[in-house]
């Protein structure tokens, strides 16, 4: 079975509407990920999790298809470390909103933006809100960050303490070792756990961020890393990937069961 939108013909996609599919839009970023990971990490991982979840959902009879990755996200805070690209939040919101609306206008009634980059969070949420308002009563448009789905299950794979999973860290490096090992240079790994900028906040992927203040990443970390990638393993990445796919597939199921009403 084909899971990628771009592998299907227009005739197949027209027929697909009759199955009331869930359409996933992976949203990534092109930005530095320390000395050991490529700049495309967030896009690679968002797409991989989407496809993995689509396969699980389809096994349960929930037809799911994955759009091309929106590669460039909102990453101005990474530009100072080089090798990064960024859109403005306004541009990213506009692109994701228009993509979502165009899908619902064609009859694809269930759309989920699947974000893979923390810096995109507010923009992705806004896009889902704006598109959902425009298409209210005609479709459901949701948004989430795939890594947020696994927070309650982190004890199944985590070794590091607070701050060990942030950026180019134990979490992302393990996933990349499992899915794209040829792109990881473990011999260049450097750990870095910065001190929290404010009380009651931290830099952990699953930590509390009660107050948000913009900071250049070069002020947070000298090497682009936040966390302990030295703890990453391929085996750990396999566990993380399985959990991510399971949790996203469950979200797909939940969306599929909702009636679309005004």
Envelope shape: globular
CATH architecture descriptor = 3-Layer(aba) Sandwich
CATH topology-level name: Rossmann fold
User: Looking at this structure, what is the CATH superfamily?
Assistant: Creatininase
Which whole number gives the mean pLDDT?
A: 96
Give the count of helical stretches: 7
Count of separate structural domains: 1
Tell me the name of the CATH class: Alpha Beta
Percentage of β-strand residues: 5-15%
Number of strands: 6
H and E order: HEHEHEHEEHHEH
Radius of gyration: 18 Å
Helix-and-strand structural type: alpha/beta
Main sheet overview: 4 strands, parallel
Strands of the biggest beta sheet: in what spatial order? Answer: 2-1-3-4
Q: Separation of termini?
A: 34 Å
Helix content estimate: 25-40%
Structure commentary:
α2 (41-59) links the parallel β1 and β2. α3 packs parallel to α4. Helix content is 36%, strand content 10%. It has one domain (5-256): Creatininase (Rossmann fold, 3-Layer(aba) Sandwich), CATH 3.40.50. With 262 residues, it is an alpha/beta fold. The protein is built from seven helices and six strands. The strands form two sheets. It has a four-stranded parallel sheet with strand order 2-1-3-4, sandwiched between helices. The protein has a two-stranded antiparallel ribbon with strand order 5-6. The chain is globular.
